[in-house]
Amino acid sequence: MTASPHPATYQLEVLPNAEQLAHRCAERVAALIDLALDQRDRAQIALSGGSTPAAAYRLLNREHLPWNRVDVVLGDERWVPASDPASNARMLADTLLAADGPGAGACFHPVPTELESPEASVESFEQHVRRLCPGDPPVFDVMLLGLGDDGHTASLFPGTPATQERQRAVTIGAGKGLERITLTAPVLSAARQVIVLVSGA
After folding, report:
1. 89 located within any domain
2. N or C: at which end does the chain have fewer Cβ atoms within 10 angstroms?
3. How many domains does the chain have?
4. Residue 137: is the preceding peptide bond cis (ω within 30°)?
5. What residues form DSSP beta bridges with 147?
6. Is the pLDDT of residue 115 over 70?
């Protein structure tokens, strides 16, 4: 595992309501994608599931970006079929990747939840993420995270073994009664830009 050559800097933005939060998030992610594509042939972004970012994804779907050069993965996914209402991939298909907007042209790399076990899904997704993103740990251009009311981000729930994983890029998370596939803490923190989206605090 290598340390980032750039010191971390932080910026806090507080918006007056959920609508403005969604607009600001979409605006910021679009700008970061543009920046990444100015520097490299492709951009890799990891997105959060859950209800908070959905409005931002709908707005991002309308942005006229070179989406065919953007690789999209989920920071975590419940181990359910892609058609399940609890699936983050399904939410993304209805928002960022909706067919009525330019965002549909993005290259989506879903977590393979159709495999025979969570362990098999972890192995497959780990290999895919490492092929997709250079670095050890893999480095995404943008990492969009949420924050649960219990303090979890991605599917790293406080007090669970997943939070302690340091060697792998992907592991099994457990929380709220469902097994999950999640990027690990080293991958989250290695991203060039990390956005933590919190609503209602």
Report:
1. yes
2. C
3. 1
4. yes
5. none
6. yes
User: Using H for helix, E for strand and C for coil, what is the string for 139-163?
Assistant: CCCEEEECCCCCCCECCECCCCHHH
CATH of the domain at 42: 3.40.50.1360
Strand, helix or coil for residue 125: helix
pLDDT digits (tens, 9 = 90+) for 116-158: 999 999 999 999 999 999 999 999 999 999 998 889 999 999 9
Q: Is 150 left (phi over 0), alpha (psi -120 to 50) or beta?
A: alpha
Task: List the structure tokens of 111.
Answer: 């977590």
Does the pLDDT at position 199 exceed 70? yes
3 state SS of 80: coil
Q: Give, rounded to a whole angstrom, the gap between the first and last alpha carbons of the chain.
A: 34
Structural domain includes residue 154? yes
- The answer as to whether 86 is a domain residue is yes
**Dihedral angle computed from the Cα positions of residues 18, 155, 73 and 138, in that order, rounded to the nearest 10 degrees:** 120
